[in-house]
Amino acid sequence: MDIKLLSAAVKIGADRSRLERIFLNGYGEVMQKKEDLPAQLPGITSLRDYGGCYLVHGRYLLHATVTCRLAYASMVDVNPLPEFAAAIERVRAQLPQTEFETVGGDFREPALFQGLRETDASLLYEVILHQENYVEVIRNVCAKTRKFICFAQPCLAEEFFTLPASAVLLQFHSEALKDVLRTNSFWPKEPPVERFNSAHWMWGHTVSHILDVFKGLGWMLRHGVLIGGVCGPCWDYPLLVFERVV
Ligand SMILES: C[S@@+](CC[C@H](N)C(=O)[O-])C[C@H]1O[C@@H](n2cnc3c(N)ncnc32)[C@H](O)[C@@H]1O
What we know:
Helices cover about 30% and strands about 25% of the residues. It is of the alpha/beta class.
């Protein structure tokens, strides 16, 4: 490698736009922010949560549905849990006019989207880092969303990469390397795998990579902050809202 070229790339590549960083007291406050984001979107009447069941049982979808008195609330999850069905029943009495939909399916499959109606807004919370075809998933989510997409997930710190807009496939990294990246994070120790497995962490995207993927698909950043300290020193945790560019 030509050292002059490498140092030019390092120097010029270091000049990347950074979002404001805020610090919260633990993951409970992050969940509160994730909940507030869709509930504060202007003028929406419908919302779909892609992968909103595990552990949170539709919390983010249902909070916005109640707050904004949405007409249509949709969940797509490969594993729609009974706790989510029970959570819908708890809010149904307050919202007799709201249409609730649960789709059990894998959003890596483009055919799944053919049967989906459009919504004003969509949630992509802690799901994109698990998909081997994540650009196609985001493209299909964009196609079914009229106005806004809320996005949140751990993203690898920009400092790991010389070039901006980088991403790394870390699912097949050595255990020793993964353990370093897990330092003080909530990435759990997982069994090694030999094939793509969307149940485990697959990608380390940078925030600049995610911004560029949405830009390439015709969506602009409407709101964005980085939450510091929630996933250890190696990871940023962005909370982003993208808006369709007309
Ligand atoms: C890490 S959890 C995130 C839960 C929630 N969105 C949050 O932010 O806490 C991932 C969720 O996405 C679902 N999921 C992951 N990959 C999926 C896929 N390819 N198709 C459909 N659902 C998927 C899982 O079943 C799970 O409910």
